């Protein structure tokens, strides 16, 4: 019986080990070189978290920079529009001064013509008096030489003529001299008025050119800002993973909320100040209006206007009356109705209707419908009205914005419609609208036509 050979399986295992050794070495080397793969069940690594946080912070910084850039673009647009509005009212002022200068020139020329006619009449009367008294038929040239070369003194020194002419000529001579002085003064005044009219016309032309340039600059800025806005909104939408329309909607809602909060804060401050204010002094009433029988600070029936639109922040607190007295029946009601009928019509500098308006053109047209003349110039409208405090505002009054503490700095005007709301022609790109009195910043002056 043969015994089994135990060496053969061992040999086969040895040969298998020799064949697999290189494969094991390669696998071991690969395991040492290749990075360890994270187990998906264990979650992100610390490095993943750090990378994600860095990416989030970078995106947030980009969002902040984009939002700042958008705010700067809108501020640039507002500044350009305001500059155009100032230039437009400067043109209105120059045109108004030119109109006044032309009116003064016409008055001065008419006065000069009347003075010249009076002088000629006095000259003829004086000549006839000489002829009838002295008995000499003086022709006009001889008479002129007589009165202008001290001929009257020579004539009166003649003893043969003194008794006959002295009494008769004295009155006529004085009247002639007065007429001569008045004619000379009137002529000089006409010359000065003509010079002022010429200067005013040149000023109006220069102001018109400046307004045109400012309008063009504002339009260029608006186009550039729109391009910038579109680009920035798209970038912001990409960073936030939403649509551009949604980004713009969110921005509009945030701005509206900020304006609403600012408006509420102003009104709260005004309400706190109101009890401490003295009763406003009575102001001149419009003959076509009924006097207001109620105190200014009370209003049992407030003006039923819609809630004012939210407004931008303003570091200066406003001081309006919390409630307005009812609109007087008469000019103010007609003015408000006229202005409200123009809502939606475009702004155009220098325009006073019927289909386009600037700020002072609208208020002038409104109060013309209310039976009162106002110049087409905001400063002149303030000067033609009765200044009032903010607490005395009532529908139909005028609200002004200026660049300084003097009324001469006024460059925008609106019609107060009640309940903190105005109707005005804001600026290029914005039509006639009805909105909060604090849509921009606190007004500087108030007046009643």
Q: Any overview of this molecule?
A:
The chain is of the alpha+beta class. It contains nine helices and six strands. A hairpin with a 7-residue loop joins strand 2 (about 400) and strand 3 (about 410-420). The longest helix has about 90 residues, at about 45-135. The chain is elongated and about 130 Å long. Residues about 25-40 and about 275-320 have low confidence and may be disordered.
Write the SSE topology.
Layout: H1 7-33, H2 46-134, H3 140-148, H4 151-157, H5 159-240, H6 244-273, H7 331-341, H8 359-369, H9 378-383, E1 386-387, E2 398-402, E3 410-418, E4 421-424, E5 433-436, E6 445-448
Antiparallel strand pairs: 1-6, 2-3, 2-6, 3-4, 4-5
Helix pairs in contact: 2-5, 5-6, 7-8
The geometry reads as: elongated
Strand segment count: 6
Helix and strand element order: HHHHHHHHHEEEEEE
* Mean of residue pLDDT values: 74
- Strand fraction band? 5-15%
**Number of H/I helices:** 9
Quick structural summary:
The protein is 61% helix and 6% strand.
Descriptive keywords:
449 residues; alpha+beta; six-stranded antiparallel sheet
